[in-house]
Amino acid sequence: MGRLADRFGGRLGAARSGAGGHRGARPSGPAGRADGATGPEDPVGDGPWGPSPVIEVRSLRKTYGHGDATVRALGGPPSARVGPDGGGDGVDLVVEQGDYVAVMGSSGSGKSTLMNILGCLDVPTSGRYLLDGIDVGGLDEHQLSLVRNRKIGFVFQSFNLVPRTPALAQVELPLAYAGVRAAERRRRALAALALVGLADRVDHRPNELSGGQQQRVAVARALVTAPAMLLADEPTGNLDSRSTGDVLAVIDRLNAAGRTVVLITHEDEVARHAKRVLRLVDGQIIADVRQAPADGPPPALLDPAAFPSSPAPGAHAATPVLTGSPLDGGASR
Amino acid sequence: MNPVEILRFAVGGLAANKVRSGLTMLGVLIGVAAVIILLAVGNGSSQSVKDSIEKLGTNALTVTSGGGFQSGSSAQGTKPLTVDDARALADPADAPDIASVAPEVTTSQTAVYDGTSHSVSQVVGTYPAYFKTSNSRVDKGDYFSADDVLNSRKVAVIGSTTATDLFGTVSPIGKKVVIGGTPFTVVGELATKGGTGFQDPDDTVIAPLPTVQNAFTGFGSLSQILVEAKSSSATTKAQNEITTVLMGTHGIKDASDVDFQVSSQQSLLDTQSSTNKTFTVLLGAVAAISLLVGGIGITNIMLVTVTERTREIGIRKAIGAPRGVILGQFLAESTLLSLIGGGLGVVAGLIGSRFTIVGIRPVVIPSSVWGAFAIAVAIGLFFGGYPANRAAGLRPIEALRHE
To answer: Do A202 and A169 contact (CB within 8 A), yes or no?
Structure first.
């Protein structure tokens, strides 16, 4: 574990500084961000090529079955015509730090497959995937579990909370796997729950929480390790419009605080919250639309009036501000 | 991820399904308790046989007729044991190491008293020396005397079982009881010997030798001669003297051609304990099988648990649980099941072996307690290993898709 922690050390530091500050006056432009990432508190830096993207995917393909029964879930047919994104065979995708990407597509378009691969839950058939600068393809099972623990925060459509476990323990779980001590774990889990507005529900079990509250617990669990990116698979798919607004508001604020978010959805309403929208058809990216600059605040916070379903940022005034919050302690020991 | 944390997860997992966990533990509990109790019963029975044989006196020797196994050819020349043989043995000049001699005839008769009938398994006709040699003490009344023997009086000393069956709570002393058609006056009741095996040593009637011979067996051969050596260290010498004397009276020249057997209590003890060892091993095997079944129960329940919690395993893996932690959690669950089940089984076994079971007072073998407990825990580890490994080996994506 130590070996890998060393390997991750610099990267985690970079991710932390990227996620940590810049809420109030976020400098615009890549130069400003590079400065932030290689600040004095982070001497390791990101190498001679500047900050690495959180996600860098090259000709990613995923097939199921063999021979005639082969199904291409991602990347399209091997000899397909060149797609609109110019990627040809396989999916190419680069997501910068602080970006807020919505992946859209009808069911069967490969968006869940993409999400599983990005989340290191599944392995691609071919192609390269660099997560926060680390080539995931070369990692063994134990290292992958570390990557899932430290680099990725999952939010699932069906919440996927551990049954019969109180909210606080749910949120502490990833920290427990990361080996954080009990007192520290509790402090950070409470902070994360406060951040999603559930400070008064820490002892509730999943069956005692509404869908929206369960999903917010899941969000708290996803962000408690201060991961490089938040990966949400249709996080609002099972929620009513009010809860949808609550959850999206939390995600918006997280992104505004610098957390990279990749969100999979088939609802345009949800996709409107993103800074960048990708459309997936038959395993190929056919459209890539930028709605807001990657290093600015997300559209919902820029223009709250356009998003009537989501509460104004001030609605959760009691929740702590992300900057300097205990969450930024990082997951590495 | 420290072991305490893993243990906490495991306890949580078990507590989530209390009935199931409890029943699984019950399987192990029964297995462990069965091993402890059955081995204790086996041990207790051999212990009590040993005790009752020792009670008989280790300086007692038994002479029986017959040449033993190796000399079937001499069967036609076998001379039965007679009262004359016994008299010869009682001669202190020829057999200085013999303290007393009691010739014995044994039969089985039905005793009737006041309409109550009881089948006595052992009606013994003998001399008063029998009481001391066979460690039979009279509790109420008195022994019959040498005078009773000489005069063939119809008196009897009865065992406690016989007394209870015939007379109930009434004192039998002085009562007339009809044994096999002959009326006997009860002069004494023996103290309860207690004992095990197929024959109740307290179900007996002891009467003067000529009386029993006259009434039932006839004045022919004796069943056996009970000889008491002067001390337990003199039994070997006494044994040799018996052989010499009886070879003389039976006119046998070759020592390998004897038509009688002299057995000491020690040899009886050896035979008995080897029989008991077999008995104990059989009981232990039955108990071990039940322990094994308990172990398979653990596997079964853990497999069900893993299948049922596949999704949970997927969630845990998605949020970064390493393989080792999942493996540890499920292994800890199965080991906890066997540990608690085994611990309770030890308690149940120790409590259970405080009771008398089918007339046997169980004597716990300490090594069986440790052994059963250790095997139970090892079974938990071993049988939990497969399901735990399966849980840990699940791919997160498949586990998450599991419904």
So the answer is: no
Q: What is the CATH number of the domain that holds A66?
A: 3.40.50.300
Q: Which of residues 165-224 of A touch B (CB under 8 A)?
A: 165, 173-174, 176-179, 221
**A-B interface: how many C-beta pairs under 8 angstroms?**
66
SS (H, E, C) B250-267: HCCCCHHHCCEEEEEHHH
Q: In chain B, what residues touch A119 (CB-CB under 8 Å)?
A: 318
Residue finishing a domain among B207, B236, B258: B258
- Partners of A150 on chain B (C-beta within 8 Å) are 320
B318 touches chain A (CB under 8 A): yes
Residue of A nearest to B8 (CA): A176
Going residue by residue through chain B (403 aa), what tens digit of pLDDT does each one get? 678 888 888 888 888 888 989 998 998 899 899 889 888 888 888 887 777 676 666 678 888 887 554 444 444 567 788 888 888 888 888 888 888 888 989 888 888 888 888 888 889 999 888 888 877 888 888 888 888 888 888 999 998 888 888 888 888 888 889 988 889 999 999 888 766 556 677 888 999 998 888 888 888 888 888 888 888 778 888 888 888 888 888 888 777 778 888 887 777 777 777 887 888 888 888 888 888 888 888 888 888 888 888 888 889 988 888 888 889 988 998 899 899 999 999 999 999 988 887 777 888 888 889 988 998 888 888 888 888 888 888 888 888 887 7
Indicate if B24 and B126 belong to the same structural domain: no
Tell me which of B258, B293, B325 is where a domain ends.
B258
- The pTM for the full model equals 0.65
Q: What's the complex ipTM?
A: 0.75
A17 vs A39: CA distance, rounded Å: 8
Task: State the alpha helices, DSSP H only, in B56-128.
Answer: 83-89
Pull the structure tokens for residue B233: 């260290």
CA–CA separation, A90 and A86 (whole Å): 10
What gap in Å lies between CA B155 and CA A227, rounded to an integer? 102
Closest CB from A122, A149, A165 relative to B319: A149
